[in-house]
# Entry
Amino acid sequence: MLEVTELGNRIDRVPFQNQNVPKGVGSQHAPKRLRSADPGGDRATLLDQLQQWHDRGITFAVLFFDLDRFKEIKYGLGENAATCLLEMAADRVRHCLQAEDVLAWLGADEFAVGLPRHQPQGAAVCAAERIRGALSQPFRIAGQEIRARARIGIALNAPEDRDPAALLDRASMAAYGASFDGNIPYRMFDRELRDRTTARFEIETELRQAIVRDELQAYYQPIVNLQTGAIVGFEALTRWIHPQRGAVPPDEFVSVAESTGSIAALEMQMLRQTCQQLRSWQQQFGDLSLSVNISVQHLCCPGMVDGIARIVTETGIAPGSLKLEITEGLLMEDAPTLVAVLEGLRSLGIQLYADDFGTGYSSLGYLRRFPIDAIKIDRSFINGIAERARYGALVRSILTLAANLGMPAIAEGIETAAELERLRSWGCPYGQGYLFSRPVDRMAATDLLQQAPRW
Ligand code: C2E
Ligand code: MG
Ligand code: MG
# Structure
């Protein structure tokens, strides 16, 4: 634990050990003061310090933070780079603290800070802003530029709080809350947060059971060839058919599945279910394609390419009819593991689509770095093309970009005949949206195929 006392800079304990960081990755960046060989051992020392402050009647705040997408970075760039990132982050945080503060490494990518202050709330907010600012600058590790912002939770002690571990838990809960509150930089613990977190944990538990009980069901939204007006395939969109709540939309559970590690099981189940369905439709109705959304967390899981290869073989679909949609939003650049996974999927003959194109900060970089076959133009660009010249100009530019790259474009969220007409006249090859059909269950999708509408 870092403790800067009135005697000068004295470091009692340090964030972690550095023996495994090879030259060239960590050595030029690593702080020189690393000694602790006890990952997470700082926790006990921190709790001890908090207890002492409490016993002496000193008011204090506890900040807890972890690093956004640390796992992705670890799997994408390797353990050594991840360790190096932690060291550099700890070093930056140290410079944000005052002499009497303590910094503890709790294990994995989790850190905590204790701030003894007369006015702990204001001090905690200032410290959180400084830490957030320090960590938001990119890290240069092993020749890569990595962004790994912190989500910070704050808890304040009250005289009646006897258990410092409970305070640390509250700070950690607040950090967790910061991540699902629209990614705000820091959050103070309060009662409302506790209730919501409890509810989220319930979702987490229920979701695990839902996967086992097969409560996840694919809905299908047709993808239409805009020139012929015929259905060419479907996008599968996951719904959780909850015994009490009915069809729960994905934004209520996909992020929970991502943060709790059940996303791979969920998506593999979806893939198996939808590829089987595709096979049966292909036998009945001929050539059709299927788009399935895949989370980056899942892509980074070991064995995912083999898992998908197995599903393709077992269900007997042509790999070329399967498209995996990946939403941009990767924070790392040129992540070698990710590129290897995407290349692996493509070598199976599967196509990769850039989903929600234009909404992330790195759309163009994404096309340069990753082997992408098609672009899905986010519906926020499509809504309004009929009324606003600026929207139209943007969509036409994206269509030109896609055409120059030799990639088909799919317009998402077409809701009006006017939007369809514009897209058609600009030569947009494919589209989907409520104008054609909302996502529907497999029976309704089969009916649609039977009716073979032409829009
Ligand atoms: P997405 O892949 O961009 O899917 C399109 C979303 O837009 C779907 O929402 C769809 O219902 C909605 N949509 C389609 N047409 C229209 C329209 O004309 N107007 C409007 N307002 N909305 C339209 P949904 O089903 O709620 O899915 C939301 C997101 O959840 C998806 O966005 C996708 O990113 C994610 N998702 C769904 N299933 C999975 C999954 O199995 N794995 C992962 N990782 N993500 C999934
Ligand atoms: Mg999608
Ligand atoms: Mg989309």
Residues 191-213 form the longest helix (23 residues). The chain has two domains: 7-189, 200-451.
